[in-house]
Amino acid sequence: MTAFMSRLKPVLAGAMALAVAACTNTFRSDVATFHELPAPSGEKVSILPMDEAKQDSLEFRQYAAILGNHLRLEGYEQAGNGKPDLIVGFDVMINDGREKLDTRMGFSGPRPFYWRSYWHYGYFWDPYDPFYRHNTEVVARTVYTATLVMEVRKPDGTLLFEGRAETETRTKAVPEVVPLLAEALFVEFPGPSGVTRHIRVDLDDTGK
Prior knowledge:
Number of helices: 4
CATH architecture of the largest domain: 2-Layer Sandwich
Radius of gyration: 26 Å
Oligomer: single chain
Strand content: 35-45%
């Protein structure tokens, strides 16, 4: 029995590792940036929606505040009523969605209450159940693509940075997903230019 337990320990350790990985609460996003942005040195920024019609929107003021907080952490300052050194434009979009097919394992037929594995002469044995059947289910669901785009320009219009973060979501709850997209966009900001990165944000660390 001791030998059996010694062989079983690595199996249990692997199963526990898989269980922990499966329970990890992460947010995934594709992030692409293109920039000629110098290192920040306290430049003052104004943050505005790219769409002028949204500049009075309370919703977009909230998004601007989220981006402003990230920019502050990177070393920029809010211009307030003063003259900005840089102008940050942004927009948030979500599409009409598409159908996505997923597969998952299921079973059909009754499974007797006495079904169990047992140990006998160094082997595991399973009773044969003629009624138990594995099958694969195809599940259709609607997914949406939410996108946050941001650009940084000089007051004369010279473009220094453009980037986007996008993710698939099962709902059109834009206010809940924008903070996560912003979090992904600012991972190692401004990031490598001309590269799409697959970003994972640990929600347990962000407190979201």
